[in-house]
Design goal:
Length: 241
């Protein structure tokens, strides 16, 4: 029997699957990174991969005129989500999913960069995100999204009312970064140095928080992803069905 496949759309090299890679491999998935800056995403079969993960990046949903890849990803996600194929979005990926589902994506009340827990809703506590309860996660965004119709809000923070949403067992969007690996966090600091400086945020504090919370987050994030993968269900348009 062939191994299940995960396609991970990557926008910037260090924002990868991080701590999600190990539980995916443990579950038998073959990982294929799709580089958004190199591949024609319009040529991808939106239903082909057993799991699609759309990762984070420094561009935004509102940047489609400058970065055509945004429109390509939204179109791909519309087709995939219409088929209820297993899909996970992280940060930019979550925003693209929200837009594909018809929700607004807009500037938030403030830029959220740093390590802090999210507040889980009752639906969140009943979901795989319960593994993250009380654990500081990495936030790195300025845009927020509204809750798409037909979805459940799973988590929030004071400046971001929708930090995560789900639609059934197969569709999960995370505004925050649970996958961030502390041992690779220096890549984030160097890669986003201009943004950190512009926001007036001290990289020394971010680095110290990563060292303090990263290992705990890695354990919790792996548990969360394992629970989500276990709960996935075949979709009506599964090519293998």
């Amino acid at each position: 029997m062939p191994r299940p496949t995960v396609q991970a759309i990557r926008h910037i090299h260090f924002e990868d699957l991080g701590r999600f890679a190990a539980p995916l491999a443990e579950a038998g998935y073959t990982i294929d990174y799709v580089e958004a800056a190199e591949r024609d995403l319009a040529s991808l079969d939106p239903l082909a991969a057993d799991l699609l993960v759309v990762l984070g990046g420094p561009i935004g949903v509102g940047d489609a005129a400058a970065y055509p890849v945004i429109a390509q990803e939204i179109a791909l996600l519309k087709a995939r989500l219409a088929a209820d194929r297993p899909t996970l979005g992280i940060c930019l990926g979550a925003q693209l999913m929200a837009r594909a589902l018809g929700a607004a994506v807009h500037a938030g009340a403030g830029r959220e960069i740093g390590w802090s827990p999210v507040t889980l809703t009752p639906e969140g506590m009943a979901s795989p995100l319960a593994a993250l309860d009380g654990t500081p996660v990495l936030h790195w965004h300025g845009d927020n999204f509204d809750l798409p119709a037909g979805c459940h809000r799973l988590a929030a923070t004071p400046v971001c009312p929708t930090q995560a949403f789900a639609r059934g067992p197969n569709v999960l969007a995370l505004q925050f970064h649970a996958e961030a690996a502390a041992e690779r966090f220096e890549h984030w600091l160097i890669g986003h140095a201009a943004e950190i400086a512009h926001a007036g945020i001290d990289p020394v504090t971010l680095r110290a928080d990563a060292e303090a919370h990263g290992e705990r987050l890695g354990v919790a994030a792996a548990a969360m992803l394992r629970a989500w993968l276990t709960a996935l269900r075949p979709s009506l348009q599964d090519p293998a069905a």
